[in-house]
Amino acid sequence: MLRFMPVGDSMTIGSAGDHTWRYRLWQHLCTTYGGPFTLVGPREALHDPATDAPTSHAYADPRFPRAHLAGWGEGWHHMAPLIGETVRSCRADVLLVSLGLIDLGFYTNAEQTADNVRAFVAGARSANPRIRMAVLPVIPNIRVEADPAFAEQVAHFNELLAKTTVDLDEAGSSLLLVPPPPSYDLRTDTYDGTHPNASGEHKVAAAFAEAMWQGWDLGGPCRTA
């Protein structure tokens, strides 16, 4: 069984009432991936605005394998120290990673964030030398529009991330850069300028699905967006 682990921040964990892009991608793989698979990770909850903590289990579909490694307000800075043991304990085969916004907003500059990407990749490979990783750059968000200095850091980090994925890609442990959804619009694809609504969830899921199909021949053409 192929074991996918979603890794991310608030856009990946989702909030109470969200379907999440994790769910949309699972739906897609259920129809296009020919073998058994599941989602794995040490966490299962959604973020609950009422408690400001990951305490909600209000998923819309009880069949959904809801495991993940995602957290509200967490980034590469938080996940790099955790990923080795998590990959080992959850026996992950493929990491689906969406991180960076939180790092650049609160913790590290573009170069430091890229260093944490390298530490993350090394940690994951220390636990599974054949692990594959699909990584999404920082996608459009309201702060980029409002803060030119932040926008510059995001653009610089995305450039460094693209270079890092090329530098660290290996035949036995592929590192795949996921092209951002080309039509993603923070006004129509988010509910607050950052977090995806149903339309945004479909587009993020489609970005991962298309990248895995094109890069790894895994799954099939994505029709969810």
Tell me what you see in this structure.
By secondary structure, the protein is an alpha/beta fold. The protein has one domain (2-216): 3-Layer(aba) Sandwich (Rossmann fold), CATH 3.40.50. It has helices at 10-13, 21-32, 76-90, 101-107, 110-127, 142-146, 148-168, 198-216; strands at 2-8, 37-39, 46-48, 53-56, 69-70, 94-98, 132-136, 175-177. The protein starts with a strand and ends in a 9-residue tail after the last helix. The mean pLDDT is 96.
Structural class: alpha/beta
CATH architecture: 3-Layer(aba) Sandwich
CATH class: Alpha Beta
Q: Provide the helix percentage.
A: 40-55%
Number of domains: 1
If helices are DSSP runs of H or I spanning 4 or more residues, what is the number of helices?
Answer: 8
Mean residue pLDDT: 96
* Number of separate strands: 8
CATH topology: Rossmann fold
How much of the sequence lies in strands comes to: 5-15%
Shape: globular
Write out the CATH superfamily name.
Answer: SGNH hydrolase
Q: How would a crystallographer describe the biggest sheet?
A: 6 strands, parallel
Spell out the blueprint of helices and strands.
Blueprint: E1 2-8, H1 10-13, H2 21-32, E2 37-39, E3 46-48, E4 53-56, E5 69-70, H3 76-90, E6 94-98, H4 101-107, H5 110-127, E7 132-136, H6 142-146, H7 148-168, E8 175-177, H8 198-216
Parallel strand pairs: 1-2, 1-5, 1-6, 6-7, 7-8
Antiparallel strand pairs: 3-4
Short synopsis of the structure:
With 225 residues, the protein is α/β, with parallel strands linked by helices.
